[in-house]
Amino acid sequence: EQFASFFTNSAAPQFLGPICETLNLRPSGKFCTDRVVHLCLSFLDVAIELAPTYKMLKPHQDFLLYQVCFPTICLSAGDIELFETDPHEFVHRENSPLADFYDPRMSAITLVSNIVKYRGKYVVPTLLSFLQSNLQRYSAASADQKNPIEKDGTLLILGNLADILFKLKKYRPDVEGLLVTNVFPDFNSPVAFLRSRACWMIQRFSFVNWTDDGTHLRTVIELVLRSLSDPALPVQIEASKALKFLIEAEGAEQTLLPILPKILEEYFRIMNEIGNDDVIAALQSIIDRFGDHIEPHAIALVTQLTTAFNTYCDAGEDDDDALMAASQCLECIATVLKGIHERPELYRQLEPTLLPVIRRIISEDGDFIEYIEYALEILTFLTYFPEDISNELYDIFPLIYVAFDQWAFDYLGQMVPPVENFIGKNPSLFVSRQGVVSNQNMSYVDMVFSMITKTLTSTETYPGGFDDPSSDYEMRKALSLYMSLLLNCKGMLDNYLPSINDIVLAKLAEKVSAEIPLTRIDLFIVIGSALLYNPQLELMELEKRGVTQQVLSQWFRDAENMDKWLSRKVTVVGFCSILQIPTASLPESVKALIPQIIVIITKMTAKIEEEAKIPVGDEDDGVFPQMEEKEDLVGFDEDQDVHNSADDAYLEALNLQNLNGGGDELARFLMGDAYGGMDDDDDDEFISPLDEIETLQFYKGSLSTAFGREPVFFQEVQQTLPQEIVQLCQQLFVLADVQAQSGGQN
Q: Of 417, 495, 517, 554, which is most buried, counting CB atoms within 10 Å of its CB?
């Protein structure tokens, strides 16, 4: 804080004079490098957030905005020459993610946007007046007197203020007139870079609500579609990106659907000319939007996309644009596969096209590691939706194992879905299959167990002494594979139960005092799955190690923290499986805990039934979030420093770290909601024979069988139960009968 105060009040003001003098070199006709201008503007971007420096800058705002920033934002003669003579390089430069770090145009745009955002009350009226006069002057001038460079810079500023300024209630009504009057005509401009800017403006102002009878929307769609085949490549690129936004507008579907094949053809033509990930992302949005109509084009789409992917990959590591475009191709393929899920027979037809791509990515010793997530996602679709898995697909499985074992250990989370599909589609076939690994035969089951063991026996720790949450996340993913095997392969894995218990119980001992119980709960889910698999064998394993009572007692304590349906359901069916064993065959340590078991399963079953009555909220299907319409710009007075909640939270985390001498608070801030719990909301995605078990009926059936088998013992148990548990049990029995008659299921 002392250094920050010194910099704000003493150091920063002293830099302003030399920096402003440096920025005055170009307006004075003198030379100054782009790098120096970029750094000076970047410093001023910080200066406008500090009250002492902003007060000093405020009298010079007009100089800063109109003599420094605006000329910097406008295209230079070199930019125009590049646009006309080397459009590929122009597109590459305009879309470079590194531009923020070297391009003075980007730093000037950022500075103007932030002045409006943070100090708007002092600059917006004069800035809008300046921009409006530029547009009026261009419209009024004769053809030979028009200044397209000035207009392009004006539109660039207006487009960058779209989210900050023009979504406000005060200015939003002006957007439609701005587009119709000043942008629509530029689609027909003889100046190519203005046609490109017109397409870009449609992207920036996609939120406009057209007030006419739909003519304006149809007009802009037709203009953008025509621009897809514009002679200038940069115009084609911007048009393809603009269409991504227009497809969401109400009424756009009627115009676009009849010509969908022609649109797809134009996109692939552009993709063949240049690798641009934004173009492919726009194609992906179109496929996603018109998913119901994409089936007739699916095979052609996937064929074109795989061809493009291979082309981009062959471009070499130095072509960053091609590498990003290759990734986007795979994402686009996944979107197509999602769109045809109601036609599972198509997946088999696509295998000859997709399997070589998957093999190329997974089997190249990590050379294509940047694409492995996409390959695994594609593999998930191919193994999930068809009725069965082909031999060619099964042959991919050893490649997944080798990739995990040798270079893709960190991608277990993405491997789990296809692996679970392989297991669950035909468990007996999966258990019987073998593959060649390092010139030796190895069963698929052993491959899965090897992946699990490697994950659960590896630990990572942050400096400061606390567990790496991502490692815990990977452990939980590995545990879900145990669960998938136990639930799908009933009676086929008896010889594996000892090793499962060795690893799970050792990990449970490590996690018994962990502050975050997520991994511990997942360990109990595995034990519960083992009880459902074979309760007698699992209890024998626990008894052999002398830990039965400790495990069950900790399980009872953690039951209060189980708020997901999967952990609750597995706990209920696992404990109910114990009750299905005659008490004479139960260990004494378990027999003594039966009253507690009944209390736990009764409470959990009631919770499951109660939550099943809560309707699931409708999720927003829109691609674009609903806008919060504000009355006016909210900024800061000149005597206020700019601050926001993210900065305040970061400072608080740093202070807590210094006070406590550890990094836990900082890690919590940096990781946010992911800290300790990464992606634990995927219970709904877990599919297994467990889904076929109706929890309430299983609960009632297990208790009824137990009472009927040993009435005297369980009558004595009932007398020890709290009265509210007995009453709750009776209510659940009645509800079970009602559901059985109506066919209800939870």
A: 417
Straight-line distance from the first to the last Cα atom of the chain, in angstroms, rounded to the nearest whole number: 56
Distance CA 330, CA 314 (A): 15
CA angle in degrees (0–180, nearest 5) for 721-722-725: 90
- How far is residue 269's CA from residue 256's CA, in Å, rounded to a whole number? 18
Instruction: Quote the CA–CA distance of 182 and 587 in Å, as a whole number.
Output: 84
| Cβ 467 vs Cβ 510: under 8 Å | no
- Residue 441, classed as helix, strand or coil, is strand
Q: For residue 722, give the nearest of 605, 607, 609, 602 by alpha carbon.
A: 602
Q: List the structure tokens of 512.
A: 């018994």
Between 95 and 717, whose confidence is greater? Answer: 717
Give CA–CA dist 37/338, Å, rounded. Answer: 48
Tokens of 59: 């009298």
Q: Give 379-391 pLDDT, tens digit per residue.
A: 999 999 999 999 9
Distance of CA 299 to the CA centre of its chain: 27
Which parts of 481-617 are beta strand (E)? Answer: none
Q: Which residue has the tokens 């024998």?
A: 540
Alpha-carbon distance 183 to 177, whole Å?
9
Q: How confident is the model at residue 83, as a pLDDT?
A: 96
At residue 200, φ and ψ (nearest 5 deg) are -65, -40
Measured distance CA(379)–CA(351) in Å, rounded: 10
Nearest to 168 by CA among 124, 223, 213: 124
Is the pLDDT assigned to residue 169 strictly greater than 90? no
The residue type at 103: D
Q: What element of type H or E holds 423?
A: helix 412-425
Instruction: Give the pLDDT confidence of 637-661 residue by residue, as tens digits.
Output: 988 988 876 666 666 666 665 555 5
Q: What is the pLDDT of residue 624?
A: 39
CA dihedral 712, 717, 718, 722 (to 10 degrees): 170
Other Cβ atoms closer than 10 A to 511: 20
As a whole number of angstroms, the distance between CA 635 and CA 629 comes to 16
CB 45 within 8 A of CB 114: yes
How far apart CA 545 and CA 505 sit, in angstroms, is: 9
Could you tell me how far CA 602 lies from the centroid of its own chain? 37
φ, ψ of residue 503 to 5 degrees: the values are: -75, -45
| Over residues 685-698, mean pLDDT | 84
- Helical H runs in 559-672? 565-579, 588-591, 594-612, 645-660, 664-671
pTM of the model: 0.81
